[in-house]
From TrEMBL:
Top-level EC class: hydrolase
Organism: Arthrobotrys flagrans
Signal peptide: 1-18
Protein name, UniProt field: cellulase
Record Pfam families: Glyco_hydro_45
SUPFAM superfamilies for this protein: Barwin-like endoglucanases (SSF50685)
Length: 271
């Protein structure tokens, strides 16, 4: 019965969100870090006011040529810049960059767009992030996924082995073993440790927690890192949860969706 109630509540959420699923909805998150050139670093991926997501050379100095191929399988020299790791502002709010996929949208819609995420489970309930979509995820084309770029995941990290000439104590590479505790981060190359610590300290090493998302105007804290600003930014305000005029729906909409989704998960998992 509880599961049925949860399904009905989520169906209501889905109907509310159907108005514009490119900008708002529910989905899941994950973690990834591959050291490769982000997909949103190509000039054709979005309507840029400035330029695509900044990339870096092997020594982490910025590249000015956005046509340079990825160092991961393309014979290029472009890597992700190490400052594109998440950081905590306080115990309940963080900034970060994500590998994004939103069904019904495209890279032209999400590349360099910013979103406010409000977590629903996994011990992160009520925690909030504002993230900029710097990459694209292709894990499941039927689901909305925001993969936070935080070093420490074992999959697809051969680019990191190429960059650092190290397997990070056995944690990097497709055959790497997963990190299970904070002290494992100390085995990673020094430039990757900060984001790995965030994974345990703020994200609590949660496994694919669910969240609501809503597009917001990108904060300077994020665009200063990537250098990427879209030409449609003025259509959005700074934060869905702190500014009632931040989206076409306002704060009451954001709170309604969050409340409904939380209720659904509580019923489904009997919590």
């Amino acid at each position: 019965m509880a599961v049925l109630q949860a399904v009905l509540i989520l169906a209501t959420v889905s109907r509310i969100l159907a108005a514009d699923t490119k900008f708002t909805g529910t989905g899941s998150t994950g973690l990834y870090w591959d050291c490769c050139k982000p997909s949103c670093s190509w000039t054709e991926k979005g309507p840029w006011l400035t330029h695509p997501v900044q990339t870096c050379k092997k020594d982490d100095s910025p590249l000015s040529d956005f046509t340079v191929g990825s160092a991961c399988g393309q014979g290029g020299t472009a890597f992700v810049c190490n400052n594109q790791q998440p950081w905590a502002v306080n115990d309940t709010f963080s900034y970060g960059f994500t590998s994004t996929f939103i069904p019904g949208a495209s890279e032209f819609d999400w590349c360099c767009s910013c979103y406010e995420l409000i977590f629903l489970n996994g011990g992160l309930q009520g925690k909030r992030m504002i993230v900029q979509a710097s990459n694209t995820g292709y894990d499941d084309p039927t689901r909305t996924i925001f993969g936070v770029g935080a070093p420490g995941e074992k999959d697809f990290a051969n680019g990191c082995m190429n960059r650092y000439g190290s397997d990070g104590g056995g944690f990097l590479g497709n055959e790497g073993r997963p990190l299970t505790k904070r002290t494992d981060c100390e085995s990673l190359p020094k430039p990757l440790q900060q984001g790995c610590f965030w994974r345990f300290d703020w994200f609590l090493d949660a496994y694919k927690p669910n969240m609501t998302f809503q597009r917001v105007k990108c904060p300077k804290a994020l665009t200063d890192v990537t250098g990427c600003i879209r030409n449609d930014e003025d259509k959005f305000n700074a934060s869905a949860s702190t500014n009632a005029a931040s989206t076409p729906y306002g704060e009451s909409f954001s709170l309604l969706v969050t409340s409904l989704a939380l209720a659904a998960f509580a019923l489904a998992f009997n919590i």
